[in-house]
Amino acid sequence: MLGVLQGFALILGIIGAGYLAARFRVVEGEQRRVLNNVAFFVATPALLFSVLHDSDPAIILSPVILVTSLAAVLVAGGFVLASRLWFRRDLAGTTLGATCAGYVNSNNLGLPVAVYILGDAAYVAPLLLVQLVVFAPAVLAILETTRGNQRGALVALGRAASNPIILASVVGLLVALVRVPIPELVLGPIEMLGAAAIPMVLLSFGMSLRGQRALQAGTGRAAVFAAAGLKVLVMPAVAWLLATAFGLSAHEVFVATTIAALPTAQNVYNYAATYRRAETMVRDTVFLTTFASLPVIACIAWVLSGT
Predict the structure, then answer these.
(1) Per-residue pLDDT tens over the stretch 113-127
(2) Is residue 272 domain-resident?
(3) Which residues cross the membrane (predicted)?
């Protein structure tokens, strides 16, 4: 658990630094969006390419990843249903809420969980691939359609296809498929830019906390609690049921359930802030799940790790 605690402390420390930067007016008002935009259009694409270019696309087909991906789709559908029945959100808000419910932090929290609880960092790499290659393009394509483009959804989808995050993911996956060697002269700057992506997203997230408290009345708390509950409670339960029903081994059931309990990824806030859609809802959900997932992961490890 020490590694997991270190992962949480790392994230919260950088978020706190962002909050202090806004608190002491190092960054004021909308200036934080510059940091968010650099992360979205420059650093994150570099990170995704550097992660994907030497990956093994075949690992996407592992049974654990099929279970966790199916669980993500099911809980996302649960949020859409809840939005229709109990609280009304527009298309962008519903899409981002559903993404909050199923899009896990497979990088800066997933890695320490995989190493120190699951025993192998390779467990989260396939899910990272699925989220980057399948989930992210679908979410960004929907968000593009909410920009009021009068020429139709096909144009919006075309714009989504030219999104730097999607382009970097596709190019990185193609390089991995054909095994094209990348010279260090080219890869070095890309990796350096990519290393800045997560800190910039976390700093921007922390800056957004300045000036308003999380979970304030009138900010759509019902959607936040629904997304957070689906993420940290329902998704692990669904993953456990699916893994058990599909006959996975005891250890694979433990792995799938633990991965499903990871909190919402900060990337979702990056998308919301870039498109200026449902920012407060996404920010509060990321904040809430980051804290709530720790005791849930600890309970899963206690109950299932010995099975």
Answers:
(1) 765 567 655 567 667
(2) yes
(3) 6-22, 34-52, 58-82, 94-117, 123-143, 164-182, 188-210, 222-247, 253-273, 285-304
Number of domains in the chain: 1
- Angstrom distance (rounded) from CA 292 to CA 193: 31
Query: Has residue 59 been placed in a domain?
Result: yes
Q: Which residues contact 241 (CB under 8 A, 6 or more apart)?
A: none
The predicted-structure confidence for 78-117, as pLDDT tens digits, reads as follows 999 998 888 888 888 999 999 999 999 876 666 557 655 6
Query: Which of 234, 280, 279, 275 lies closest to 139 in space, CA to CA?
Result: 275
Tell me whether residue 229 is in a domain: yes
- pTM passes above 0.85: no
Q: Cα(268)–Cα(213) distance, rounded to whole angstroms?
A: 19
Please give the residue range of the domain that contains residue 105. Answer: 42-194+220-304
* Amino acid letter, 207: M
Residue 63 domain flag: yes
